[in-house]
Structures are given as structure tokens and as C-alpha cells.
């Protein structure tokens, strides 16, 4: 039995199609509306992509800067920089929370 108090999804509509074959046109219209993306969906996707791209570019910039100067650094400075990067990424994700986009981007680093 289909529950009417939950949002419609494609599985529920396909199950309804099997039970009510006379409503084929209405079910097809509902399936078409479920497949459409709203501007808010695209804004959410763009926000996520730009945040992860920014985190990746920032991380790669730091890596290239350190790689260029790596031979000039001492052994303890090299170890300290690697540990500082790991602690900073952990700190960002802990402070912002992994349920937010900035916390997830910090976990990538």
C-alpha cells in the first residue's frame, strides 16, 4: 500500500502505475515533473562544486609552494609543515562540522 504522507518518488509512481493503469497520463506527467531540476537545485550544485574547487585549488597552491621550497627546509620544518596541514584540515572540519560544505571541503585537504 502506498503511503500518502511521504513525498512522491519514482518508485512510488511506478508502483502506482501498476495498480492504476487507467491513470497512465497523469502518472507520466508526475514522473516528468520529478525529473525536472529547479534553479535552487542548480544553485546548490554550483555552490558545492565551487567550494570543493576552491578548496582543491587552495590545497594545490600550498603544495606547490612547499614543493618549490622543500629542499631549503630542514627535516623538522618539513615534518612540522605536514603535521600542521593535517591539523589545520582537521580543525576546519571540526569547527565547521562535517554536515556543512566548508567542513567537508576541509576533510578533502
Which structural traits does this protein have?
single chain; 109 residues; mainly alpha; 5 helices; rod-shaped
Note down, in words, how this protein is organized.
The structure is a single chain. The protein is mainly α. It is 75% helix and 0% strand. It has five helices and no strands. It has helices at residues 10-19, 24-35, 39-68, 75-96, 101-108. The two termini are 47 Å apart. The mean pLDDT is 80.
Low-confidence stretches are none
Count of DSSP strands: 0
Termini Cα gap: 47 Å
Please indicate the percent range of residues in DSSP E strands (runs of 2 or more).
under 5%
Order of helices and strands: HHHHH
Give the helix/strand class. mainly alpha
Question: Can you count the helices?
Answer: 5
Biggest sheet character: none
Percent of residues in helices comes to over 70%
Radius of gyration: 24 Å
Categorize the overall geometry: rod-shaped
- Average pLDDT, rounded to a whole number, is 80
Explain briefly what this protein structure is:
With 109 residues, the protein is an all-alpha fold.
Layout of SSEs?
Blueprint: H1 10-19, H2 24-35, H3 39-68, H4 75-96, H5 101-108
Helix pairs in contact: 1-2, 3-5, 4-5
Amino acid at each position: 500500500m502506498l503511503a500518502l504522507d511521504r513525498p512522491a518518488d519514482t518508485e512510488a509512481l511506478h508502483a502506482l502505475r501498476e495498480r492504476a493503469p487507467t491513470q497512465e497520463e497523469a502518472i507520466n506527467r508526475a514522473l516528468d515533473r520529478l525529473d525536472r531540476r529547479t534553479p535552487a537545485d542548480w544553485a546548490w550544485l554550483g555552490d558545492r562544486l565551487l567550494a570543493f574547487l576552491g578548496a582543491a585549488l587552495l590545497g594545490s597552491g600550498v603544495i606547490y609552494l612547499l614543493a618549490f621550497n622543500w629542499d631549503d627546509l630542514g627535516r623538522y620544518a618539513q615534518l612540522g609543515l605536514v603535521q600542521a596541514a593535517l591539523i589545520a584540515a582537521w580543525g576546519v572540519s571540526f569547527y565547521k562540522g562535517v554536515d556543512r560544505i566548508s567542513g567537508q571541503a576541509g576533510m578533502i585537504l
